[in-house]
UniProtKB/TrEMBL annotation:
Root UVB sensitive protein C-terminal domain boundaries: 329-457
Name of this protein: Uncharacterized protein
Organism: Rehmannia glutinosa (Chinese foxglove)
Disordered, as annotated region: 70-100
InterPro entries: RUS_fam, UVB_sens_C, UVB_sens_RUS_dom
Pfam families: UVB_sens_C (PF24160), UVB_sens_prot (PF04884)
Amino acid sequence: MIAMNLVPIHNDVDAMNLMNFVGENRMVCVYVEHEKISPSPKSHNSDVPMEDFPTVDEPLKFVGEKKDNIDLNEPVHEGGSGQNDVLDDKDNNQSDDEQSIESRIEIFKMQKKEPNTPPPPLPVHWVETSDSVSHHFQYDPDGQLSVKLLDDARPASRRMVESFLNKFFPSGYPYSVSEGYLTYTQFRALQHFSSATLSVLSTQSLLFAAGLRPTPAQATAVSWGMAVVAARATRLPIYSSFAKEGNLSDLFAKGEAISTLFNVLGIGAGIQLASTVCSSTQGKLVVGPLLSLVHIYCVREEMRATPVNTLNPQRTALIVAEYLKSGRISSPADLRYQEDLLFPGRVIEEAGSVKVGRPLHKVVKPSELDKVKEKFAEERFILNRGKKWTDMILERNATGEDALRGWLVAAYAAEIEKSFRKPSENALLEAYERMNNMFSPFISELQAKGWHTDRFLDGTGCRFAL
């Protein structure tokens, strides 16, 4: 688009401004307006001959219409008919000439070119090659990153495995999850497969017992509806123990996707078994117990593979026992295969043989309660040593740190009694002093290992409030 404007030049300042205005992106056309030729002011009467016309000596040709046969290079002489002809011509065509000149001025107005628009920036893109796979990365104008596969030289089997991992495992696997996630996922998939298969067979048997004759598809529909009702929120604490870098939502979504996939596969296997091997009662009696055993074994291995980082009585006892034995604090991953899932309440002698959560009236006589509490008046636990074990009862608002403090006192007291044959009262006091001296570095290292000490999961154990 061309912008035009007419700027009059009256003096030298205007001329300098014009020179400063001219540049490589601006074009200027200068029009010179001539002084009008008019009669001398001495004569105002048309009857009187006009005199004193100026002589015009202009080196430029007159810019006008082609009908104006006037050459300004020729001097104009005073008097004569030629002078009258020029004046008559000039008077008659004055208005036409002014219009023509104005139109010429409009054509040769000062022109300004639009500055050249710089070309758009080239898109940022690059190619990455990793493990026989080449990808092209490019940032779109809206800021989004687009990825395009250029070359993939991997074997077909490996591509299938990695595609499965990308769809059903969290982003960044295996570095985005805690140790043991693959083992947990394998047993969990097998558990869902066996559970879904067993649910089809058991539902069919239940409907048979009710006097119905359901088809495998009908039994599947009923069992699927029951599975949908089952809550999934109970698995959230398990996912949180594997999560890293705030990826709990991604972990939960991918884990539930795997569960759904193997549920569907298990239902398909259940339909096939219900139509063939398990179409009779004898077949169900054989296959049903086997699937139940597989289901229980998978659940056990899932729990063993999960690095739970909250404290409960058994995990606390294992931590204390390992610390007294070697001076080392175990991490959640170290203890996951040491827990006894069948008998979680067993007493561990190496950790002081502590029992947690027994009713207060069974541990301490009412007449001795104040005396027992005064031993550790500033603590939120009560210890009472017996012949076979030490009872520990926590206050209602006690945390994991309080449970650890009491457990360490009981363990040190048992060790002192066994080594130096001291009475239990003196052993407890000496153990309490030893615990206070080492507890700060102990709890710091424990938390650095990944343990959560803000709560203590003692299940249905009793607590007190005074």
